[in-house]
Each structure stands twice: as structure tokens, then as C-alpha cells.
Amino acid sequence: MEPRNVDRAWHATRARAGLAWLRLHDLRHACATFLLASGASPRTVMKTLGHRQITLTMNTYAHVLAEVERAAMDAAADRLFG
């Protein structure tokens, strides 16, 4: 794909959707966030995003994992203690 064509199509699409503030990179970040929140492993997210090292993925999205872990702990506590 020609980068110029992708960029042109992206600008037209977001303008039609009324999302002028949304960057194409924001979709990439959202994809990683949703994958992690859905329980995907960090290595799966790394491969999906095309990162070569897991440290880049973890350093960028570690905050999401903390939220997922907290939700899991809360759910387990609810099951155990009502």
C-alpha cells in the first residue's frame, strides 16, 4: 500500500465520521489495549503490533496489564468472599 494513499483515505474516513482528532496511531494503541484487556498474552500483542522485543510492548502497555490484573483480583475476591 502506498503510504500517501493510506493517509488520504484515513483523513477522508475520519472526516466523514466526525473524528478529526483521531490519529491512525490511536487505532494501533486501541488494538493493543483491547487485546490485553481481553486476556491476550503480551507476546501475542507484541506479534500483532510487529514489535521485535517484548520490552517495547510491555513498557508501552504495562498500565493496561495492571488494570486487567486488578479486575481479575477483584473478580476472584467477589467469588471467594461475596
TrEMBL record:
This is Integrase. InterPro entries: DNA_brk_join_enz, Integrase-like_cat_sf, Integrase_catalytic. Pfam families: Phage_integrase (PF00589). The keyword Transmembrane does not apply. Residues 1-74 form the Tyr recombinase domain. Keywords: DNA recombination.
